[in-house]
From TrEMBL:
Domain FAD-dependent oxidoreductase 2 FAD-binding, chain residue ranges per copy: 55-460
Family label: Belongs to the FAD-dependent oxidoreductase 2 family. FRD/SDH subfamily.
Name of the gene this protein is made from: sdhA
Cellular component terms per the entry's GO annotation: plasma membrane
This protein's record includes keyword Heme: no
UniProt-recorded name of the protein: succinate dehydrogenase
Topology in the lipid bilayer: Peripheral membrane protein
Lineage: Bacteria, Bacillati, Chloroflexota, Chloroflexia, Chloroflexales
């Protein structure tokens, strides 16, 4: 670790940048009035005319499911697509710890403004103020909506909704349903969606994967899908397209995401003209079960909520391999409590992750390979009793024991950081519209609300805010200015998009190489983790940028994709997704190399304070990097959206 505060090197900037003036369309007026002002100024679609419009929604998780249900409830015709066998299989179901809302039920000083401030600060001052304040405002409505749907949030003895704390906050604002909050919220959205399916307002297409975006006259008007059971290629057109397809963490191969999570939908849109914002901003989650084998296919998350009652520590001595109960209290280093007394174990995810890596790099890690730290509930069990801990976290403890064969009621959990969430995504303005008119992007698929680091329990908040409360207003403003059905299904753009998909599949199936798709994905993922993971430096990023094209070239010469395109073919699905990951990986490394500051989850080793904390460079990097596709084999063009901070003053983050 460097001990001298250094200034970033700014000589790696692209020669071509700032070619497009990005307008975030933030409304006028005081911060607390911007959303109200915008809603009043939006053009409206007459209720009788809404049934003339068709909206395509890709994705059925919290963002997509809530958007499809709400748009249909308003009267629009909706086509909703997911690649799972049911909308209930969306990866939102895996979220564990909770959902934030500024209700201040605990009367502990919370407010809409404090949630706004914590989110801006937690994202290391790399997000747009207007969007984040709107998210904080809407958070209070989300809980009421979900309670009305019957979501079984945890309650206190008297019947009031319970709250707990999460990293990056000193108040209790996280609503939860044990360790299965995402599942319960998704069931709420799913029942609303199912009602609209039953009424005929939503046409649901399960096991259909979006493989191309259709643009007509410069506007997004449809998608090309592949039926994952029959292999049939189909085109679907409408008046607007909404992408709610999640993040791209699986570019690293090992991540906490479901194996099917991918980047293809937003990457296809990117190559059709949608700018990709801050691709290097990926989140490392500090509370994951450590890797336990060379051929492990994914990682399992342990909810951040466990840090409320679990204490994180490692031995003070290097190479101390004694069992945890044999290490006396005086020989333990509760390093987060020692370094960050104000927040302790509840520092934000990026801070907790980097510190875990630091102690393991020092040789004080625990478990096989020394890549782990203890998350110890011994004190909490003594203080509260095992039954109280079981009530809060029982299903998480059971999951941990099934995977590790260790009982966390008796021995500490072992955890290590892992790739989790992606703050980068398609660039959108305040209306959640991308640089392609008519293409709206919601949830984790866009970049809008979390800056360089997402606070825990804010993903569910953003997905439901976008789907239930924001998009229904903003997409109406767009549709009100478009003639309903103003597209021709026989347009040449539709045929061209289908042709491109079929040619891509034909090429993949015709290579007949010797390596599996997974072997390429695993190689790419390890390279990304080593060179663009928890810590990045110029040398490693340049090595990755030299190696990725070599992996990609071999992929297109030596991958083996068996079967045909006209049948169920999971190898073909994977091949298409991995080919997109390879292109995205190169852009991620280029973005990381260009941003020579450290901020949030993006930690450049050349830019850190004397204490080893992330050192921002606000003079040169207080902007959103929005990358523009410029054709195959040509460098992407970087455009900027300058971030202005009128209400939260830029300051070096401190959680001490």
């Amino acid at each position: 670790m460097m001990t001298v505060e250094t200034k970033p090197d700014i000589t790696t900037r692209p020669a071509t940048e700032f070619t497009v003036a990005l307008n975030p369309k933030s409304p006028e007026g005081p911060l607390e009035k911007k959303w109200d002002n915008a809603k009043f100024q939006y053009k409206l679609v007459n209720p009788a005319n809404k049934r003339k419009y068709t909206v395509i929604v890709v994705g059925s998780g919290l963002a997509g499911g809530s958007a499809a249900a709400t748009l249909a409830e308003l009267g629009y015709n909706v086509k909703c697509f997911c690649y799972q066998d049911s909308p209930r299989r969306a990866h939102s179901i895996a979220a564990q710890g909770g959902i934030n809302a500024a209700k201040n039920y605990r009367n502990d000083g919370d407010s809409v403004y404090r949630l706004f401030y914590d989110t801006i600060k937690g994202g290391d001052y790399r997000s747009r103020e207007a969007n984040v304040y709107r998210l904080a405002q809407i958070s209070v409505n989300i809980i009421d909506q979900c309670v009305a749907q019957g979501v079984p949030f945890a309650r206190e003895y008297g019947g009031l909704l319970d709250n707990r704390s999460f990293g990056g906050a000193q108040v209790s604002r996280t609503f939860y349903a044990r360790g299965q909050t995402g599942q319960q919220l998704l069931l709420g959205a799913y029942q609303a969606l199912s009602r609209q399916i039953g009424l005929g307002k939503v046409a649901m297409y399960s096991r259909h994967e979006m493989v191309e975006l259709i643009t007509i006259g410069g506007h997004a008007k449809g998608i090309v899908t592949r039926d994952m059971v029959t292999g049939k290629i189909e085109s679907h057109v409408g008046d607007a397209v909404v992408l709610a397809t999640g993040g791209y963490g699986n570019v690293f191969y090992l991540s906490t995401n479901a194996k099917g999570c991918n980047t293809s939908a937003i990457w296809r849109a990117h190559k059709k003209g949608a700018f990709f914002a801050n691709p290097c901003f990926t989140q490392i989650h500090p509370t994951c079960i450590p890797v336990h084998g060379d051929y492990q296919s994914k990682l399992t998350l342990m909810s951040e909520s466990l840090r409320n009652d679990g204490r994180i520590w490692v031995p003070k001595k290097q190479g101390d391999n004694r069992a945890p109960d044999q290490i006396p209290e005086a020989e333990r280093d509760y390093y987060l409590e020692r370094k960050y007394p104000s927040f302790g174990n509840l520092v934000p995810r990026d801070v907790a992750s980097r510190n875990a890596k630091e102690v393991c790099d020092e040789g004080r890690g625990v478990g096989p390979g020394g890549l782990g730290v203890y998350l110890d509930f011994g004190d909490a069990i003594k203080r509260l009793g095992a039954d109280a801990i079981r009530e809060k976290y029982g299903n998480l403890f059971d999951m941990y024991e099934r995977i590790t064969a260790e009982n966390p009621y008796e021995v500490p959990m072992r955890i290590y950081p892992a790739i989790h969430y992606t703050m980068g995504g398609l660039w959108v303005d305040y209306d959640l519209q991308s640089t392609i008119p008519g293409l709206f992007v919601i949830g984790e698929a866009n970049f809008s609300d979390h800056g360089a680091n997402r606070l825990g329990a804010s993903a569910l908040m953003q997905g439901l805010a976008d789907g239930y409360f924001i998009l229904p207003y903003t997409i109406g403003d767009y549709l009100a200015q478009q003639k309903a059905g103003a597209y021709d299904t026989n347009n040449s753009s539709v045929a061209e998009a289908e042709f491109d998909v079929k040619q891509r599949n034909k090429r993949l199936l015709g290579i007949k190489g010797k390596r599996t798709v997974d072997s390429f994905h695993r190689e790419l993922g390890k390279l990304m983790w080593d060179k663009c993971g928890m810590a990045r430096n110029a040398t490693g990023l340049r090595e990755a940028l030299a190696k990725i094209p070599e992996i990609r070239a071999e992929f297109w010469e030596n991958v083996n994709v068996p079967g045909s395109a006209d049948e169920l073919n999971q190898a073909l699905e994977k091949a298409g997704r991995v080919s997109d990951f390879m292109e995205l990986a190169e852009l991620m490394c280029r973005d990381a190399l260009d941003r020579t500051e450290s901020c949030g989850g993006h930690f450049r080793e050349e830019s850190q304070t004397r204490e080893g904390e992330a050192l921002r460079d606000d003079e040169h990097f207080a902007y959103v990097a929005a990358w523009q596709y410029d054709g195959s084999n040509r460098p992407e063009i970087m455009n900027k959206e300058t971030l202005d901070f009128e209400y939260v003053h830029l300051a070096q983050r401190s959680y001490k």
